[in-house]
């Protein structure tokens, strides 16, 4: 009986106290499927609404008008209008509604009653978060950049009718993409949809004012060639034309291989004699080392720093030992550095059986003179091999290879001021292999008219 009384008493108390709580909760809103009363999103009242109702209300209020707006990007007289929807711009109403729905629905019933009383009296506002698709913005910016960007153009110089003609440089323009992304982001958030596109001015490396310093010849060199080998002369011409007009800025390194590029038949190069392993053999682009040698000597006389140079395996006919330079593929190169404070312009051409190279630069001290001296310090004699050839008439000789003595040489560069030596520099110590001569000598008997007559008589007597 006593237990039944306790149960009845507890039930009565529960009804007396819990019923008002439930009633209060109901009156304050916040049923399981609705947002509590007193809740605002972006100052729009969403209390006592379901999630879907709140989302529909906020979409209509904020996102629909947003989709009709355009972002305007301006550069000079160009305007780029982009619909915000195409940028993925959108108020995240779903996230805000989820936050609103969760308010005053945590803890026990008493806590919820207290929270909802406070909510009803004070209210709460949730700010909408504005989102956008960064990848879409970046893609649009890249497209705009392709239209606006302009590469800088260096000033140019050409030698025309005996004088230099300089064309002015042009600055380049480049959209500052990282800054523009930040500006668009701030613009969207602040609803100020007009943005001036920021650009970076890119200055060219070569300016006309520097090229105008090129006024005078600072060095020149010529080498003589034989015009009998048409293929070789053609190769010389192609190489000289490739070098002609080359500009070397202060501190820049000249590379013969880089300037000439691949020596291939498609460029017009043909086979002519080349030195390989100390022997003259036919090879594509044979002869271009004479142009290389001519450039090398002009660089020496211009008092430039030689970084890389290789001599031939054998002596060459067009310069003294120690004054030649060879190149091969990409492994053997001629390189020198413009150690002056001004640009150097190279002219190269063929005329009167000579390869001519001239370096031009700024006005020089007329009292300075550069001299290059090479000396043979040892000669290595060679021999000639005589080969009997029964296919040649007796006594006839054919020279297949001329003998070339080997030598050791040393080369110096001397700088004079007013005739007084102020600097002497060892340029190279070189060794050139000897090459044997080769002569074929005929051994075939040649019958004279008398021999023929006697031979006929002997046959008749038989």
TrEMBL record:
Keywords: Membrane, Signal, Transmembrane, Transmembrane helix. PROSITE patterns: G5 (PS51109). Gene3D superfamilies: Resuscitation-promoting factor rpfb. Residues 366-445 form the G5 domain. It comes from the Bacteria. InterPro entries: G5_dom, Glycopeptide_resist_protein, Vancomycin_resist_VanW, YoaR-like_PG-bd. Signal peptide: none annotated. The keyword Transmembrane helix applies. The keyword Cell cycle does not apply. The chain crosses the membrane at residues 7-28. PANTHER family: EXPORTED PROTEIN, EXPORTED PROTEIN-RELATED. This is Vancomycin resistance protein YoaR, contains peptidoglycan-binding and VanW domains.
């Amino acid at each position: 009986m006593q237990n039944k009384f306790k149960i009845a008493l507890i039930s009565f108390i529960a009804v007396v106290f819990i019923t008002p709580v439930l009633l209060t909760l109901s009156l304050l809103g916040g049923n399981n499927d609705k947002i509590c009363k007193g809740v605002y999103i972006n100052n729009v009242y969403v209390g006592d609404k379901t999630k879907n109702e709140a989302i529909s209300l906020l979409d209509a209020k904020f996102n629909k008008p947003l989709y009709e707006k355009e972002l305007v990007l301006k550069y000079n007289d160009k305007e780029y209008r982009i619909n915000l929807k195409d940028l993925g711009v959108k108020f995240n109403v779903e996230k805000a509604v989820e936050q609103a729905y969760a308010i005053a629905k945590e803890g026990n019933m008493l806590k919820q009653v207290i929270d909802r009383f406070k909510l009803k009296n004070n209210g709460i506002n949730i700010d909408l978060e504005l989102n956008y698709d960064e990848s879409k913005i970046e893609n649009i910016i890249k497209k705009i950049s392709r239209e606006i960007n302009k590469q800088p153009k260096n000033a140019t110089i050409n030698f025309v009718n005996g004088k230099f003609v300089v064309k002015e440089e042009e600055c380049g323009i480049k959209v500052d993409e990282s800054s523009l992304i930040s500006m668009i982001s701030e613009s969207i958030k602040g609803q100020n949809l007009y943005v001036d596109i920021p650009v970076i001015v890119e200055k060219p490396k070569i300016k006309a004012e520097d090229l105008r310093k090129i006024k005078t010849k600072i060095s020149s060199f010529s080498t003589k060639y034989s015009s009998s080998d048409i293929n070789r002369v053609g190769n010389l011409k192609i190489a000289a034309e490739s070098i002609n007009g080359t500009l070397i800025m202060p501190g820049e390194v000249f590379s013969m291989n880089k300037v000439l590029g691949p020596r291939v038949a498609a460029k017009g190069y043909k086979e002519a004699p080349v030195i390989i392993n100390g022997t003259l053999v036919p090879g594509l682009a044979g002869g271009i080392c004479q142009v290389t040698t001519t450039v090398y000597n002009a660089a020496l006389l211009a008092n430039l720093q030689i970084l890389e140079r290789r001599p031939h395996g054998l002596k060459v006919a067009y310069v003294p030992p120690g004054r030649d330079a060879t190149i091969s593929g990409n492994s053997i190169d001629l390189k020198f550095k413009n150690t002056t404070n001004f640009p150097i312009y190279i002219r190269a051409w063929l005329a009167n059986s000579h390869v001519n190279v001239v370096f031009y630069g700024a006005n020089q001290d007329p009292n300075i003179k550069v001299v290059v001296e090479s000396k043979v310090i040892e000669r290595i004699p060679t021999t000639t091999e005589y080969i009997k050839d029964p296919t040649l008439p007796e006594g006839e000789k054919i020279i297949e290879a001329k003998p070339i003595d080997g030598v050791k040489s040393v080369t110096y560069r001397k700088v004079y001021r007013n005739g007084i030596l102020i600097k002497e520099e060892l340029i190279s110590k070189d060794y050139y292999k000897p090459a044997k001569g080769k002569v074929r000598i005929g051994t075939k008997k040649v019958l004279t008219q008398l021999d023929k007559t006697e031979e006929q008589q002997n046959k008749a007597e038989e």
